[in-house]
Write a structure and sequence with these properties.
single chain; 3 helices; 0% strand
Length: 77
C-alpha cells in the first residue's frame, strides 16, 4: 500500500525521469564499438532518447501534479 500523499501516477512520472540515466550507455558504447561512425551515431541517439524521456517525464509530472494541487485546494475549501 502506498502512503496517502503518493499515487501510482507520480511513480510512473518519476520512472520516466529515471530514463535520463540512460546516458550511462555512452560509456558502454565507447567500449563496444571501434568504428567512429557507430560511436557517433550511438551517442546522438542516446542523447536524443534521454532528452525525449526527460521531456515526457516533465510534462507528465507537470500535468499530474497540477491536477493533484487543484484537487487539493478545491477539497480544502
Amino acid at each position: 500500500s502506498l502512503p496517502e500523499d503518493l499515487n501510482w501516477k507520480s511513480i510512473i512520472g518519476v520512472s520516466f525521469l529515471g530514463g535520463i540515466g540512460f546516458t550511462m550507455s555512452i560509456f558502454i558504447t565507447l567500449l563496444a564499438f571501434n568504428d567512429i561512425d557507430h560511436i557517433s551515431h550511438s551517442k546522438i541517439m542516446i542523447l536524443l532518447s534521454s532528452i525525449t524521456v526527460a521531456l515526457i517525464g516533465l510534462l507528465f509530472l507537470k500535468s499530474i501534479l497540477k491536477k493533484d494541487y487543484i484537487d487539493e485546494v478545491s477539497n480544502d475549501n
